[in-house]
Amino acid sequence: MSERAAPFHCPYCGDEDLRPSEEGHGAWECAACNRAFRLKFLGLLSRGLRRDDGGGDTA
Description:
About 0% of the residues lie in helices and about 20% in strands. The protein is mainly β. A three-stranded antiparallel sheet has the order 1-2-3, with no helix packed on it. A hairpin with a 4-residue loop joins strand 2 (about 25-30) and strand 3 (about 35-40). It is elongated and about 45 Å long.
């Protein structure tokens, strides 16, 4: 995963008018809702991917 990955939309309002923040790495500002937020990649899950077999509920 690239360390320069950028969000495509604001997690609060959904708008796409985002700019990197001066607060540092991973910090972004949304011009639409005037919020600032930080993104951080935590790592991969040890259980891996789970695929749904499409069987629905078995209750």
